[in-house]
Amino acid sequence: MPPTSHRTRFFRHEYTVGWLCAVSEVELPAAMQMLDVFHDDPYDPVPSSDDNAYTFGSINGHNVVIACLPPNSPGKVSAARLVAPLSQSFTNMKVHLFVGIGAGIPRTPSTTDAKKNIHLGDVVVGWPAETGSPIIVQYDFRYAESSDVGAGAQRLLGHDQTPDRRLISVLGKLLGAYSAGRTKFPKIEESLNEDFQHPGLEHDRLYKSEYAHPKGEIDCSNCDSGHLVDRPKRQTTDFVFHRGTILSGDSFVGGAELRDKLANVHNTALCIEMEASGVIDQTRCLVIRGICDYADTHVNRMWQKYAAGTAAVFAKQFLHTLQPQAIERFDTIPSTSRSKSRTRIKE
């Protein structure tokens, strides 16, 4: 059998990284652009009982399986159905990455450092800076009226509130390299095709919470700039990521006032999305989200591809920071994993 570095076909047990995504139109192509090498289907076929569609490849010597939800199948229930077949078909999984887009929760009030404020295209990683803060919080409006979101928003998922210790070590090393300007973010971004490039700083607009998008307008070209939030402007399109809690639920948040109420309940929350709660209930994973809107009435699709791309770039940098020989020390993710059983690490 040829050396691993020259092979393009493997057995299923040789795959150790699961890359999950939810939006096939933007997140799947972004993920595929991160692969160093595409693989042929495994020597041992995926069981017929597994309905997932997989893409196989490698990143920095890690064998990666990409699994994505079918088109137009958002939500935590669909996401949960993605995980069980993946773990059952690929029994040597060490790490799951859930990579995609989400809505940003702006910091209030804005900080004087433009890089510390949430902007479109930034990345939020489910890794809160404050000790003891949850990775994912499920909100559910069936259990709370919009005028009193506290009860529903406080429904935590899982018993472990931090990523696994060795994942934290990898993230800490990545953060150190980022602070020292020694990551590969710029070079990795270059591998994204033209459709996934930055839309332009002038299109990153954050409006005051009380200002609603004019009815019938497809974009913000006719929105009143007098209602923009006064905050420091970004001068470059440099890669920026943040650590924080991610809010997850089946209900779409498309109004700034509701967004702000959720944020007031969870002051470490920086992102809102709709699938992670279903995945983290099935398996321990690192959730990575590129910010494509501000969860307000001014939502449009302009930033979705770029945000999907930046999330994918972070995931690839993570796999460059986590070396293939180190991942072998991780315990295998159980095929019946649930939130009550964390992915243990071998000492």
From TrEMBL:
GO MF annotation, one: catalytic activity
Highest taxon above the source species: Eukaryota
One Gene Ontology biological process: nucleoside metabolic process
InterPro entries to which the protein is assigned, alphabetical: NLR-like (IPR053137), Nucleoside_phosphorylase_sf (IPR035994)
Name of the protein: Uncharacterized protein
